[in-house]
Amino acid sequence: QLQLVESGGGLMQPGGSLRLSCAASSGTLDWLGIGWFRQAPGKEREGVSYISSRGGTTEYADSVKGRFTISRDNAKNTVYLQLNSLKPEDTGVYYCAAGPYSSWQLPRYNYWGQGTQVTVSS
User: Fold this and answer.
1) What value, to the nearest 5°, has the Cα angle with vertex 56 and ends 53 and 60?
2) Please, which residues bridge with residue 98 across strands?
3) 108 phi/psi in degrees, rounded to 5
4) In the predicted model, what is the mean pLDDT of the chain?
5) Distance CA 6, CA 22 (A)
6) Confidence of residue 1 (pLDDT cuts 50, 70, 90)
7) DSSP characters over 34-50
8) Which of 50, 64, 57 is nearest to 99 (CA)?
């Protein structure tokens, strides 16, 4: 059973940076698409970015394009999300998810982590 663990969240001032990690504590991320999603209080979970199994395809939500970068290191069984130029509206719980295909569609992901809180505030 694949288990995903997110880390790297925290409190950051606007304009700051964070790097989130999604690691597989059991199982392997090889051949799996990975998505990052976030959920702000009172709002639905939304897609932030995703990456294909070999890293050849990446996509970003319009709201984070040019500020966030997704990458993966299959040798380390880890996917990263670099968050730069953070804004207060980036606040939320960030989740990583794994599935056979990378997609914006939540049901396509079979495995989800517990999430890591990102708070952007001065």
Assistant:
1) 90
2) 34, 111
3) -75, -10
4) 95
5) 4
6) confident
7) EEEEEE-TTS--EEEEE
8) 50
